[in-house]
Write a structure and sequence with these properties.
The longest helix is centred in the middle third of the chain and has 29 residues, at 198-226. The chain is built from 15 helices and two strands. It is mostly helical and 323 residues long. It has helices spanning 2-18, 24-35, 41-47, 51-56, 60-64, 93-100, 102-108, 111-128, 131-148, 168-184, 198-226, 229-232, 248-257, 261-283, 299-315, and strands at residues 233-238, 241-246. The radius of gyration is 20 Å and the shape is globular. The chain has a two-stranded antiparallel sheet. The structure holds zinc ion. The site of zinc ion has 6 residues, from α5 and α9. Residues 22, 61-62, 75, 143, 147 line the site of zinc ion.
Length: 323
């Protein structure tokens, strides 16, 4: 019934647009994609032929949020909830639990600790020489690392909902990259480096994000006073459907005001993802990636991928909290 299908599609797309995702699906896929090219040749033998998998599955953790309740907290940390204590958070999970309790930590988000858990799992997968585990965990740790680079993932005002700026989350991390990344931003970055201390490294990135959250919000507030609401939004056609979104001129003005912040954080994300992958491989004793077992995904894994997709398609649009 084509006559019915089209309006339904329009509604779905509108819902997808209004709910924002971490870094947006587009940026997450790009970040994992570009990270592959920072790796040494010994790793590229595995990662390059798998680049499409790593890119496509960069968004699995977001899809999993519809199916697994514990998933949400892994994508952010509301540092402002800790008030004065935010400046000196325990870097390790055990000491954080001792200080604040697991309930409190889970309520305010756990991204910097979850990345450390994922790093241990990825290192173990390299030691096991299990190809499908290495690829899945690489794709997924890439997601969480990238999220830790997003300023609004460190603030309880994550979508500007407390300051009359609802929608700013997707504006910063989806609209700007989708508009500018391909044509105007540069992702030629060099090479991955060995990270001596993953915990302190990722905490540094989180504190950088937190330091920028205020600018992200304040600048948009200022800019919105210069643009009428009819100039801030526009309807643009996407796949034959009209979608309301932040106007291109408004997005460009915001990007100029931020002086390249989104591009900088995206570049830093790519470098960090590649460096975590590389460090896990080094810590596992640099196994020969031409000679791995577990090359094909098990039936169970394939089923899980499919179910993630199904859950996501059923629920897309209902997610508004801490995307
Ligand atoms: Zn996320």
């Amino acid at each position: 019934m084509p006559a019915l299908r089209k309006p339904l599609l329009a509604i779905i797309l509108l819902l997808c647009y209004h709910s924002s995702y971490c870094w947006g699906f587009y940026a997450h896929k790009q970040i994992n994609y570009y990270a592959v090219f920072l790796l040494p040749p010994e790793m590229q033998v595995l990662y390059k032929p798998s680049v499409n998998f790593l890119s496509a599955h960069a968004v699995d953790p977001d899809k999993r949020r519809y199916a697994v309740a514990a998933e949400g907290a892994r994508h952010y940390i509301d540092l402002d909830r800790y008030a004065g204590a935010a400046k000196a958070m325990p870097q390790k999970w055990d000491s954080a639990i001792a200080k604040f309790s697991a309930d409190t930590l889970n309520a305010h988000g756990i991204v910097p600790w979850w990345i450390q858990t994922m790093m241990q799992r990825l290192t173990a997968a390299f030691k096991e020489k299990n190809q499908s585990k290495i690829l899945r965990l690489s794709a997924e740790i890439g997601h969480y690392i990238a999220d830790a680079h997003v300023p609004l993932h460190t603030s309880s005002n994550h979508n500007g909902q407390l300051t009359g700026q609802t929608g700013i989350h997707g504006f910063w991390e989806s609209r700007l990259p989708e508009l500018l990344a391909e044509k105007e931003w540069d992702f030629f970055i060099g090479k991955a480096d060995y990270i001596q201390n993953p915990a302190s490294y990722i905490w540094k990135r989180v504190y950088e994000s937190a330091a920028e959250a205020d600018t992200v919000l304040r600048f948009e507030k200022k800019l919105s006073a210069q643009f009428g609401s009819d100039q801030r939004f526009s309807f643009e056609e996407r796949n034959g459907v009209l979608v309301r979104q932040y106007a291109a001129a408004y997005a460009r003005a915001y990007n100029n005001m931020l002086q390249g912040m989104v591009e900088r954080r995206m570049r830093q994300s790519i470098y960090s993802v590649a460096s975590f992958w590389y460090s896990a491989w080094v810590n596992a004793g640099q196994p020969d990636l031409k000679n791995l077992s577990g090359k094909t995904f098990t039936e169970e894994e394939v089923k899980e991928f499919e179910e993630l997709d199904i859950h996501w398609k059923q629920h897309a649009g209902n997610l508004h909290d801490h995307d």
